[in-house]
Design goal:
Layout (H helix, E strand, L loop, with lengths): L1 H21 L4 E2 L1 H10 L3 E5 L3 H6 L1 E2 L3 E2 L18 H10 L7 E5 L5 H12 L5 E4 L3 H7 L3 E2 L19 E2 L1 H5 L4 E4 L3 H5 L13 E2 L15 H10 L8 E4 L6 H11 L5 E4 L2 H7 L4 E2 L5 E2 L11
Parallel strand pairs: 1-6, 2-4, 2-5, 5-6, 8-12, 9-10, 9-11, 11-12
Antiparallel strand pairs: 3-7, 13-14
Helix pairs in contact: 5-10
């Protein structure tokens, strides 16, 4: 009897330990998703991939909201629409802040993270990121289809959370650690797509918060990551890239895996900084101004 009790308690501890390792805020596995899919009648699924990808295959019931449909048509690329317009776009696709919103993309985490951040900026309280791992999707029997989803329109009432949004004044204030999520070449200004980086920024490529299969690193791995770059929950962090896309991946890693609350995305990013005539710092430490060119770094 004692032996049986010991075995049962050991098994329970293993389950609890495994659950604690897997629990990563709003990041969910295929198995977690299927539990929601089967039981949560208030769920809405958002495929943040490009329209062409959505047409080929997507999760059954998912609506397609490519991240680029959420931006203003202005000279500065990638600036998100005003909250009322964003709310209208999401509502037209059946997305409401009152629902459990599950976002996914083709597996890079870039587009799902960007749309996730926009939804959190609008004040949606229950947003999840479903990581795309086809082996796990098949194992959990995530339903896939080519048929477009028919979803009734909804009303999205925004309650803007400005604490996760940084503007150019926040960057210039000097109160935060500025993280450039682009490639080393773009950061250094050795790429023909970039004049360099915002002065004072540090370079952390967005893939450093992802594992070998492009899923988000777990808590232990992220703790090693923040220690490597001497990041702290006590110091404000502003993340940027070219247009705010890959910066969102680092944002998710720090907020959802680490649980940090003092992290913002500079939505204007490299494009706005250069577009407004501000100087960049290059590999040689020289300050320079240069016309902002096309997108790079996954943005």
């Amino acid at each position: 009897m004692k032996k049986l009790t010991y075995i049962l308690l050991s098994g329970l501890l293993v389950v609890l330990y495994s659950s604690s390792i897997m629990a990563q805020g709003d990041i969910i596995s295929a198995a977690d998703f299927m539990k929601m899919f089967k039981t949560n009648k208030n769920i809405i699924i958002v495929d943040a991939s490009k329209a062409d990808s959505y047409k080929k295959t997507h999760v059954k019931g998912a609506v397609n909201i490519p991240h680029k449909t959420l931006y203003k048509d202005t000279e500065i690329e990638g600036l998100i629409h005003d909250p009322a317009i964003l709310a209208s776009i999401f509502g037209s696709k059946g997305v409401s802040e009152t629902k459990t919103i599950v976002v996914y993309d083709g597996g890079s985490q870039k587009y799902s993270s960007r749309v996730y951040w926009i939804l959190k900026y609008l004040g949606a309280p229950d947003v999840k990121i479903l990581q795309k791992d086809m082996a796990q999707w098949r194992k959990s029997r995530v339903p896939i289809t080519k048929m477009p989803s028919k979803v009734a329109k909804a009303t999205f009432t925004p309650k803007v959370n400005s604490s996760i949004y940084a503007d150019i004044a926040d960057v210039k204030s000097g109160k935060a650690v500025i993280v450039d999520a682009r490639t080393t070449e773009e950061f250094d200004g050795t790429s023909d797509k970039s004049a360099g980086h915002i002065p004072g920024a540090i370079n952390i490529g967005y893939k450093e918060v992802l594992n070998a299969t492009e899923g988000f690193k777990n808590k232990a791995e992220m703790e090693a990551f923040v220690a490597k770059y001497k990041l702290s929950a006590d110091k404000p962090i502003l993340v940027y890239c070219n247009t705010g896309v890959i910066a969102a991946v680092i944002y998710v890693g720090l907020t959802d895996v680490m649980g940090w609350t003092n992290v913002k995305i500079y939505d204007g990013a490299y494009k706005e900084w250069g577009g407004k005539g501000n100087q960049f710092e290059n590999k040689a430490g020289v300050l320079t101004t240069k016309k902002v060119g096309g997108s790079g770094g996954g943005c």
